[in-house]
Amino acid sequence: MHNNQFIQQAKNFIPVKIISTGAALPEGKLTSEELDRKLNKPNGYCLKRSGIEYRYHADYQLNQADLAAQALNDALIRNDILPESIDLLICASALKVQALPYTAAHILAASTLPDKTATFDVNVSCVSFITALNLAACLLNSGSYKRIAIVAAELASRGLNWEDEESSLIFGDGAACAIVERGDGQSGILSFLQETYPAGVDFCQIKAGGTRRNLRAGMEDHDFLFQMDGKPLFRLASSLIEVFMSKLLQLSGLRLEDIATVVPHQASHLSLEHMRKRLKIANEALIDIYRFRGNQVGASIPSALHEAVITSRFQANNPAMLVGTAAGLTFAGMIVLP
Questions:
Q1: Residue of 208, 211, 209 lying closest to 220 (CA atoms)
Q2: At 92, which CATH number?
Q3: Smallest Cα–Cα separation from 154: which of 166, 170, 138?
Q4: Residues 31, 174 share a domain
């Protein structure tokens, strides 16, 4: 099928072109064997439990905004893009540098982009990038901006509760960036869908850092650490994902077999296996970097997208699906024509 046929079948096609991607990792590489020793577990325990060979954890001196700026700079360099050509910077991170000001302002200060560049945050936890990409496409088509950088950077390791084995083994730090413009109308978003199910709002959370838990409202030290009730979260997500995917495909006018590449949130080895088996996504179509990155929260999807780009699995005339779940419980998905 040709690009024009894909575009004609989509109900709400939005032109947009991803012109470059980039990524960055902190220096600290943490293997599961090292975690075995750190947590006094037998050899092979953490690999079996997490499905991760190694992930990256930053030291306490690394600034989250600096890591984001490294990913942005990587995307600029890869396609010789001038920093001054970017007229909007969107931060698509789940975790903040601080409560105020918003994280995109910190990233701009750390980057090579010019002062006065417009900035804002989009935060939908782990699916922030998908939402930000849809918003960027709308802004580009409105004529408000000509070239937009979307950056996600996460230092999840700083919020891990090492007493909670279920969640502490699976997270990694990292950053990724995509630079987009409107393009010539031959590439873009074939469908976008986002749904939130508040029944899962307390299954995955960090309670402190806002108005709910603070010095005046009352808080405990563990309120600043990540908390996850994994079994009910997985049950709820797995009960809804097939219907969600069906709706997303219907909006695009495509079938699953038309999708050349699936770029999922790297939530866990169980979630990726669920996609392979129950959703019948072939191994060669699925971008799986989880074994060497872990769950990078909001940086997970753009990092996987960057992997698809640099391994030539994100190419014109080959539709790709970006999909994931996030704390909320929120689902987001997008089918794009590169």
A1: 208
A2: 3.40.47.10
A3: 170
A4: yes
Tell me the pLDDT of the chain averaged across its residues.
95
- Segments in the chain forming alpha helices (H): 3-9, 32-38, 45-50, 64-78, 103-110, 128-142, 165-168, 230-252, 269-277, 290-293, 300-310
As beta bridge partners, residue 336 has 189, 320
The answer to whether residue 114 is domain-embedded is yes
Q: Examine the domain organization and report whether 160 and 207 are in the same domain.
A: no
The answer to whether residues 193 and 165 belong to one domain is: no
- Which of the residue ranges 183-187, 192-196, 211-215 would you say has the lowest mean pLDDT? 211-215
pLDDT at 293 over 80: yes
In a domain, 4, yes or no: no
Tell me 114's DSSP state. P
Map tokens 């995109």 to a residue. Answer: 104
Residue 172 to residue 242: CA distance in whole angstroms: 27
Regarding whether 123 and 37 lie in a shared domain, the answer is yes
Q: Are residues 158 and 54 in the same domain?
A: yes
pLDDT tier at 7, thresholds 50, 70, 90: confident
Quote the tokens at residue 54. Answer: 């190694």
Model-level pTM? Answer: 0.97
Is the separation of the CB atoms in 267 and 299 below 8 Å? Answer: no
Amino acid identity, position 54 = Y
Q: Do 234 and 284 reside in the same domain of the chain? A: yes
| Distance separating alpha carbons of residues 114 and 108, to the nearest angstrom | 8
Q: How far apart are CA 42 and CA 46, in angstroms?
A: 8
Token pair for 239: 């009960």
Q: Is residue 298 part of a domain?
A: yes
Sign of CA dihedral 57, 169, 293, 268: negative
Q: Do 177 and 90 have their domain in common?
A: yes
Q: Is residue 310 part of a domain?
A: yes
- Are 307 and 287 a contacting pair, CB within 8 Å? yes
Looking up tokens 């709308």, which residue turns up? 138
Written as six digits, the tokens of 91 are: 């931060």
In this structure, the answer to whether residues 75 and 178 fall within a common structural domain is yes
What residue numbers bound the domain in which 277 lies?
189-337
Using one digit for the tens of pLDDT, what is the confidence trace for 99-113?
A: 999 999 999 999 999
The set of residues, in sequence order, having a beta carbon less than 8 Å from that of 216 and lying 6+ positions away, is none
